[in-house]
Amino acid sequence: MGRTVIGIDIGGTHFRVGRVGADGSVADFRKLPTADILCSGDVLADLAGFIRDYSGGGDVQAVAIGFPATLDRERRRVLQAPNLRFMERLPVVEALSRSLGVPVFAERDVTMALCYDVEKYRIPDQGIVCGIYFGTGIGNAVNIDGRPLLGKNGVAGELGHIPVDGSAIPCGCGNAGCMENLAGGKYLARLERERYPGTAIGELFLRHGGEPLLREFVDRMAEAVATEVNILDPDCVLVGGGVPNMAGFPREYLDERIRFHARKPCPAEGLNVIYTEDEREKSVVGAARYAWRRLSA
Ligand SMILES: [Zn+2]
């Protein structure tokens, strides 16, 4: 397929990889247990070895890796990764680029997802574009005129960790009472365990979506989205991730509650919210698209 970028998404459980062309086509997609690849105790050597074997001498232009983590402002190291503690502070970019001899890009996985979605949904670069992804937690990335918002330390866009009054649930970030523990998949797992033990988590909305506990949950999601909307007055908000894509998820109710919490008349009036799908190869293609953008900048 000619020149390619290797796109990688390293999650706490799964490691996804694909070879992606400049047109976004993907070949040799694989989803493997992270523990099978990063297993020797020297994770940078494991990673370099895997990528070298995977590329098999192909015409690789770059490697791009998304992490469920905060990264330093220069995007050279992972700062904090509750599900990948062993990656924290390692010189990922420097070590891999030296060992592989190609440019290596590291980014937050949500920035990669937003990179995928802005192309798929043809969102113009101009202005403020927010990506809010409800998975296990809440992922958030903000683009301003096509460039990721970084912040002083590189950790801007942590919507999942805004504090919620009255909550003391411990969070993976080390704090307590963060929004993502009340409006992410972790809370649904808790509801399944404690309130709906007879219902599989994937059927919670199908079977109980109209009940107060799940209505409250969706309203909490809307509060998270509206918080960002009221601060940034964005041109476009992309809402995605596993939770809004669950069977029976009440998207209309979420939409109604986002508009309820958004300030009137603006940004509520004309608020542009797009609900995105979850494709199998999204994180890998998003990572590669991010790299192709960086290579052509
Ligand atoms: Zn937190």
What can you see in these coordinates?
By secondary structure, the protein is an alpha/beta fold. It has two domains: 4-111 and 280-296, 2-Layer Sandwich (Nucleotidyltransferase, domain 5), CATH 3.30.420; 123-275, Nucleotidyltransferase, domain 5. The protein contains ten helices and twelve strands. A hairpin with a 2-residue loop joins strand 9 and strand 10 (147-148). Helix 2 packs parallel to helix 3 and helix 8 (212-232) crosses helix 9. Zinc ion (ZN) is lined by residues 161, 171, 173, 175, 178.
CATH topology of the largest domain: Nucleotidyltransferase, domain 5
Percent range of helical residues: 25-40%
Spell out which ligands are present: zinc ion
* CATH homologous superfamily caption of the largest domain: ATPase, nucleotide binding domain
Give the tally of β-strands: 12
**pLDDT under 50 segments (min length 5)?**
none
CATH architecture term of the largest domain: 2-Layer Sandwich
Strand order of the largest sheet: 3-2-1-4-7
Radius of gyration: 19 Å
Main beta-sheet annotation: 5 strands, mixed
Beta content:
15-25%
The CATH first-level class of the largest domain comes to Alpha Beta
How many structural units, i.e. domains? 2
What value does the average pLDDT take?
96
Query: H/E element string?
Result: EEEHHEEEHEHEEEHHHHEHEH
Broad shape: globular
- Count the helices. How many? 10
Distance between the termini: 23 Å
Category from helices, strands and their pairing = alpha/beta
